[in-house]
Design brief:
- The protein is α+β, with helices and mostly antiparallel strands.
- It has one domain.
- The chain contains two helices and five strands, in the order ββββαβα.
- The protein has helices at residues 39-42, 65-68; strands spanning 3-8, 19-23, 28-32, 34-35, 54-55.
- The strands form two sheets. It has a three-stranded antiparallel β-sheet, with no helix packed on it.
Length: 75
């Protein structure tokens, strides 16, 4: 498995979150962000027990190749 980091949140206080990765073997994105823990939002989603939800700032979509024109933002 080869994970490629596409971009990190430049506004993260410690530089550790949020981060967007691409797995070139499974052709899937992995998103690191803050866990959504509040029940108010969870009840609005049909979330299976084996899944979780994370949130990232809206400006992080710039790192998805579909948005950036396929360039990516390898950092």
């Amino acid at each position: 498995m080869a994970l490629r980091m596409l971009g990190k949140d430049p506004n993260s206080p410690e530089g550790k979150s949020a981060t967007i990765y691409y797995d070139d073997v499974t052709d899937r994105y992995l998103v690191q962000g803050l866990k959504v823990l509040d029940d108010e939002r969870h009840v609005q989603m049909d979330l299976p027990d084996h899944e979780t939800v994370v949130e990232i700032p809206t400006y992080m979509v710039q790192f998805f190749p579909e948005v950036s024109g396929g360039r990516g933002a390898d950092v």
